[in-house]
Design a protein that fits this description.
With 110 residues, this protein is mainly beta. The chain is built from no helices and eight strands.
Length: 110
């Protein structure tokens, strides 16, 4: 999954350690690549194993919108700030991800 998101944050306090909440929206590119040893026929609602260790590959990609909200902690260390976040994301196209995820983000702000 690759995405581009815009966030709004609300920090609590002005000290060295600052908790905050965030919310935003983004555009995400979802890519699904599956390998399986069977094929299914939707007309007959039946699946059969492929012979001799053969593998069927399925590739799919889509672009979708998503909303997210979360909470984080920002810690000042000299001229940089370390941060960690936990987000809840909901995508408009459910795809292989089921539409929801709980990503954790860590990073450095300069």
């Amino acid at each position: 999954r690759v995405g581009l998101a815009v966030d709004g944050t609300w920090a609590f306090g002005r000290g060295r350690v600052r908790p905050y909440v965030l919310s935003g929206l983004g555009v995400y590119r979802l890519t699904t690549r599956l390998e399986r040893n069977y094929e299914c026929n939707p007309t007959f609602l039946a699946c059969t194993l492929l012979p001799g260790g053969q593998v069927a590959r399925v590739d799919d990609a889509t672009t979708t919108l998503g909303l997210h909200a979360g909470t984080g902690l920002d810690v000042a260390l000299g001229r940089v700030r370390l941060f960690g976040e936990l987000r809840v994301q909901a995508l408009t196209d459910r795809g292989a991800y089921g539409g929801r995820s709980l990503p954790a983000v860590v990073g450095v702000r300069f």
